[in-house]
UniProtKB/TrEMBL annotation:
Pfam families: HEPN. Belongs to the UPF0332 family. Residues 11-125 form the HEPN domain. It comes from the Bacteria. Gene3D superfamilies: Nucleotidyltransferases domain 2. It comes from Hominibacterium faecale. This is HEPN domain-containing protein. InterPro entries: HEPN_dom, UPF0332_toxin. Coiled coil: none annotated.
Length: 132
């Protein structure tokens, strides 16, 4: 059983993930594709952090969150390998969108990132609903 604080934090982070997906959609519709990619990645990131809140852990770096999720949830079979691919691609696209000077984000790519974030969010939501 998880303590109340961990459950509250997990729910907050999941709500934040949903909010970021809505932000990503608005940015996509406004043709702000780089920013849409950023919000889609952060939706995934907050969904991962929602789950790990229940384990009582957190990390200062994104890489720590990703590695922990991969090790504890993908490699153990709690989440399918396809979710690992969604995470890794979103992280790569977000880094390019945020830091590569000459990176051009496309409408199609951003749509794919948002779809991936929605799929990831839904899987995490279902997983968490089974727990609480």
């Amino acid at each position: 059983m998880h303590d109340d604080l961990a459950v509250t934090l997990a729910k907050y982070r999941l709500d934040r993930s949903k909010e970021l997906i809505m932000d990503a959609r608005r940015l996509y519709e406004a043709a702000s594709y780089k920013s849409g990619n950023n919000r889609a990645y952060y939706a995934i990131f907050y969904a991962m952090r929602a789950i790990i809140a229940l384990d009582g852990v957190d990390f200062k770096k994104h890489s720590g969150v990703i590695q922990y999720f991969q090790r504890e949830y993908v490699k153990t079979g709690k989440f399918k390998r396809e979710y690992s691919q969604i995470i890794m691609e979103a992280n790569e696209i977000r880094n390019a969108s945020d830091y590569d000077d000459f990176y051009i984000a496309s409408r199609e790519e951003t749509k794919k990132q948002i779809d991936g974030a929605e799929k990831f969010y839904t899987a995490v939501k279902v997983y968490l609903e089974e727990i609480f």
